[in-house]
Prior knowledge:
By secondary structure, the chain is mainly alpha-helical. The chain has helices spanning about 1-20, 25-35, 35-45, 65-70, 80-90; strands spanning about 25, 60. A two-stranded antiparallel ribbon has the order 1-2. Helix content is about 60%, strand content about 5%. The chain has one domain (about 1-90): Multidrug-efflux Transporter Regulator, Chain: A, Domain 2. Helix 2 (about 25-35) crosses helix 3 (about 35-45). The radius of gyration is 21 Å and the shape is elongated. The protein is built from 5 helices and 2 strands, in the order αβααβαα.
Amino acid sequence: MEELIKTVADQVTAKTIFCTKEVLTSDEAARYMGISKSYLYKLTMRRQIPHYKPMGKMCYFNRHELEAWLQGNRVATAEEIEERADAYCMKGGVR
């Protein structure tokens, strides 16, 4: 029973550290974003995602920058698009 409690405590500790860590490794960043490590590698090679290479080889990622990147291409709802179209037409945008 004590071994089970220790295992659960270790898992909780590991998940807490993972959720509060500011700088993530490639493995952690891929897991955090829900993508494969190979896709993350492609994004870094294409310079499409912000990352750091302090020693020239290993990549590190800032959690806040990843969140901003993930939320960077918001898709508007149909209602928002309709509201913008109405506002544009009300301004006399159609000529």
